[in-house]
Write a structure and sequence with these properties.
Layout lengths: L7 H4 L50 H17 L4 E8 L3 E8 L14 E3 L4 H14 L24 H5 L12 H9 L7 H9 L15 H15 L3 H10 L23 E2 L8 E2 L9 H4 L2 E3 H13 L5 H7 L3 E2 L5 E3 L4 E3 L2 E8 L2 E8 L4 E7 L10 H13 L13
Antiparallel strand pairs: 1-2, 1-12, 3-6, 4-5, 7-8, 8-9, 9-10, 10-11, 11-12
Helix pairs in contact: 2-12, 3-7, 3-8, 6-7
Length: 410
């Protein structure tokens, strides 16, 4: 299947499902010369900009670090990734933080580990955590039908909140609608309301009976965002801030009102355009992704959030146990639970939207955390660049748990 100029990021399929045409190249000069790998930060309580040193107790074995340096550099050059940040924390072995490449292909400003990035579908972990917090407070039940909270949902009496969070509702993904794709890419600054987004999806018939299949659909998360607002009595971003971000002590994570983007941040490059040419998507308005993918964060917060999500420190043990009950997706190595995946043992989520990709995962068996941040979403031979980096890192540090291809999309 030959890729059109604008369908991939919004179709939100699994990586293994795509057979794509060759990528459009990043502009010449985007990649810095060899030898620009910056030293890792070693403070176990945080990180710096990738330039400071530290004592040996906080760093990986030098030989292991060198292998990781080479693996990340090889993937970055092969996939033509402008800039990448990799953070790895392995209790008993040490830490590894690298910021390599450029944050801006025009000025050649180096990538920095203290950057903010748009986290795309990692937003889903925050939205579903907000929902589960309401479950713990007995404001909603996972087996409530969505029709109890939102009118006009096709087959809404039979689709439960659980179906939505598990991506098993059968609701057509609005991001796969050609009119939506054209409307967004014709005006990336447009502000979309949740109801407008749902309207694109509701024009289509449901794709299967609730609970019978897995289909990644951002329609599900927009509906859950509306449920959180109704049951929580606040706008979604305010509820997430008060009931999720503050309790988790995430001071550098936000749900933007518009296209605002805290400094410092890298420029983000995409070929998901009407023409197929590479464009700077840094300031595109993320309202089109809302509860499914609009949030912003940084390395420090994502490192902490990975463990919070995987261990359920904000939720009751029973609710967390339900969250972690993952079901098959139909793709090797990847199962999906309530707004969370298990990719070969790594628990968490990834994110991809025009200009940026992230991976934030936790490996309970080794209490290890991996965070990856990139300033491009341009695929390489049908593979998301963040997945290529995650696989390269985990092949070296956790060969028994090599990160599988995971869910993509905003």
């Amino acid at each position: 299947m030959r890729r059109t100029s604008y369908r991939r990021p919004f179709a939100a399929a699994l990586l293994a499902a795509s057979v794509l045409a060759p990528m459009t190249a990043i502009p010449a000069g985007a990649l810095p010369a060899a030898g620009t790998v910056r030293a890792h930060a070693t403070d176990t309580g945080g990180y710096g900009d990738g330039t400071e040193g530290g004592d040996a107790h906080d760093s990986l074995d030098p030989e292991l670090s060198a292998r990781l340096d080479k693996a990340v550099a090889d993937v970055r050059r092969q996939a033509n990734i402008p800039g990448v940040v990799v953070g790895l924390w392995m209790p008993g072995k040490g830490n590894y933080v690298r910021a390599t490449g450029v944050a801006n292909t025009a000025t050649r400003e180096p990538m920095s580990a203290d950057s903010y990035v748009r986290i795309g579908s990692e937003t889903k972990t925050f939205t579903v955590t907000a929902l589960l917090e309401l479950v713990d407070r007995h404001r909603v039940r996972l087996d409530d039908p969505i029709s109890r909270y939102v009118r006009g949902v096709p087959n809404g009496r039979d689709i439960t909140l659980r179906h939505l969070a598990e991506m098993r509702s059968g609701l057509f993904p609005y991001t796969s609608d050609p009119d939506f794709q054209h409307d967004l890419l014709s005006d990336p600054q447009r502000v979309f309301t949740p109801r407008e987004l749902l309207a694109y999806g509701f024009e289509h018939r449901n794709t299967f009976a609730p609970g019978t299949q897995f289909q990644y659909s951002n329609t599900n998360l927009v509906l859950l965002g509306l449920v959180v607002e109704k049951a929580g009595g606040r706008r979604l971003r305010d509820f997430v801030d008060r009931r999720v971000l503050r309790p988790a002590r995430l001071r550098h994570t936000l749900f933007p009102k518009g296209s605002e983007f805290p400094e410092p941040h890298p420029r983000g490059y995409t070929d998901q355009t009407l023409s197929g040419a590479v464009e700077d998507a840094t300031d595109w308005n993320p309202s089109w992704a809302w509860a499914a993918g609009a949030m912003i964060s940084n390395l420090r917060d994502l490192r902490h959030w990975a463990k919070v999500v995987a261990t359920g420190s904000l939720l009751s043990p029973g609710t967390q146990a339900q969250r972690l009950k993952t079901l098959p997706t139909g793709f090797p190595g990847t199962a999906y639970g309530l707004g969370i995946f298990n990719a070969s043992g790594w628990i968490g989520h990834n994110g991809s939207l025009p200009g940026y990709e992230t991976v934030t995962v936790y490996l309970p068996s080794k209490k290890a955390t991996l965070v990856i941040m990139l300033n491009t979403d341009i695929t390489y031979q049908g593979q998301e660049p963040s997945t290529l980096v995650a696989r390269a890192v985990t092949r070296i540090v956790t060969p028994d748990n090599v990160y599988a291809g995971a869910v993509v999309g905003p």
